[in-house]
Structure formats: structure tokens, C-alpha cells
Amino acid sequence: GPHPAGRTPAAGGAVEGARVAERITARVAEALPGAVVRLAGSRAMGCALPGADLDLVAVVPGAGEAGAVRARVAAALPEAERLREVTGARVPGLRLRASGLDVDLVVVGADAEAVRRAVGAEHPAFARLAREVKAWARARGLDSAPFGGLPGLAWSVLAARTVREAGDRSPAGLRREFFGTWAAWDWSEAVSLYPAAEPAPGVGPVTVLTPSAPVRSCTAQVGAGVRDLLVQELYETWERLDAEPEGPGGLPAAAPPHRRHAAWAVVTVRADSAREFEENLGRARGRLRALLAALEEAGLPEAHAWPRPFERSATLARYAVGLGPTPPDAAALTALTGTWAASLPGVTVTRADGGDVPDLP
């Protein structure tokens, strides 16, 4: 017979599908306190076919770790099948099937969302500058928070602020603006995504504030020595860009760190099995700031930990920590680092002369 109120089976299926989608969306939102979960794709535009994928975007506080989100979503949707993390995409996320619907959940850190909003239509210029600046920082060993450097978020904030305030947004103009601005910056002041009416005092040698709540410094790990190195490198690059405004595109190459360090503390992490090695490496990386603080307190402010190992296998890694122009001898270094190394399984610290450490990756 005729269907009541003109409803067809297809329309009924669409209504039921919409209910299921609403229920899943609500449960994902409950699983992620502090996040904003919203519909995307065809359902958000009101043109979804019955059985269409459910596309969700979760804007989560801070950086947005897909692993942590996965555990919470798995607990909230015990019936979920084929739950897996999507890596390699431009933004991380999860893919799963629940209650007959394929669900794509994109995880966006609120910090990234705030930066994207701040640069607006200038996003292509921002993205290009941020990539160049992060490559510049990597070549100088200044790009890793666990090693006392500035994390990717800090470089993104500095690049976004530059793009917002620059008059000349050509690639060369933005490079000069970036290095000119931050080489001359008074680092006793905090840097925020939007300039503050009243400059806020910094809470450490370098203070770059996160762009989303809870607002905090993402550079608390940067010591005075790395700040001085940062200023020196920014200034040298700015001078070279300024001297050759019509020079070749891109940024000048980094001077090899061997020029700054007469000797190295070589931190070796090893273990018998790959799994044990990963655990030992995680602990050593987590405690590296304490080693740098001890060296700084002992009168070695130029100590600089290079973030990538110069030797690596499945059960061994060696990292170089530059000791500056007047390094301690082997006995003094052992006295300084012995307690730190003894507290970490599989970790030793030895001294190497400047030329004994190969080029750093």
C-alpha cells in the first residue's frame, strides 16, 4: 500500500541513517572532553546520500595527538570495527565502522586551527614561510623541544605573526621580515600570535605562547645558551639576506656546528633488544634537558644537544652534545654527567674531540 505521509523507504532509511550519525557524533564528542566535534563533508552540507560516510572533525586542545584520541574513541564506541589511525594524510585522524556507517574522524589541534584562522587568506604565503623556517631551524639543530630547542608550533607562531604584519608578502620579502623581526626581538618579552597591547614579560629565556587555550609557553625548555645561539643564527641569516637582497632565492646554508664546539659529550643509548632500546631511548630523551641544565650550571652555557643521532641501529643510538669553545676534560665531564647517566638504563656519556664526531644529520 501507499507509504504514510508520502515517506518512501529510501527517505525512512535516510532518517534512520541521520539518527545513527547523530548518535555516533554525540558519543565521539562525549569521549573527547574539551574538544569541539563538528560534522563535515556531505552531511554538513545537507546533501548526503543514504549510507554516506560520516565525516567528523574534532578540534582538540593543544597539539592534537591521534593516539590519545583513538583510545578514547575506542572506549566510547565498543562496537566499532576496523578502527585504525590514518597517518601520512595532511592531518592525522581515525577511520572506523560503527552501526553500519563508515566514519572518518579528522583530528585537528586547536593550536593549528588558531594559526590557520590568524593568517586567513594569506595561508599559502604562511605555509611556504613556515616550511622554509622549520628547515632552517632543523639545519641548525634548533628544532626539537626534548633537546632544548623550539618546537614546530613556536616556529609556526613566529611565521604567522610575520605574515600578518608584513607589508611585502613576496617570498624574499617575508624571509627578510622574519629574520629582521626576530633577530631584533627583545626575548625578555613573550611572543603571542596577536601582538599584545601591553607586552607580557617572558617566563623563561624564550617565551612563545600557544595560540589556543589554555595559553602557556611552548618554549619553557629553551635555556639561555640556546636563546643566545638562536639570536646569533637569526642575526647572521638576516645580515646575509640584507646584504644580498637580489641574491639566490632561499635561505643561506648553516655553518657546521663543529666550528662552535671544541669537544662533544657523546650520549650513547643501547640495549639487547629493540623493544628495550626504544624504552631506554624514550627515557634518555625525556631527561636530556636535565643534562643540559647541569652543563649550563657548570659554566658551559654554549652546550647544545643535536636532536638527531649521528649513529643509529635497532639497538643503539649516539647523540652529540656540543660543549662550546672551552670544554671540560674527560674526567671533569664524567664528574658532571656521571649521576645523570647512572640514573638511565643503557646510557653512557663519553668525551670526543671536535673532529671525532662526523657531520651531524
UniProtKB/TrEMBL annotation:
GO biological process: one example: mRNA processing
Domain of life: Bacteria
Molecular function per GO: ATP binding; poly(A) RNA polymerase activity
InterPro entries linked: NT_sf, PolA_pol_cen_dom
Keywords: ATP-binding, mRNA processing, Nucleotide-binding, Transferase
Pfam families for this protein: PAP_central (PF04928)
Domain Poly(A) polymerase central: residue ranges: 126-198
Descriptive protein name: Poly(A) polymerase central domain-containing protein
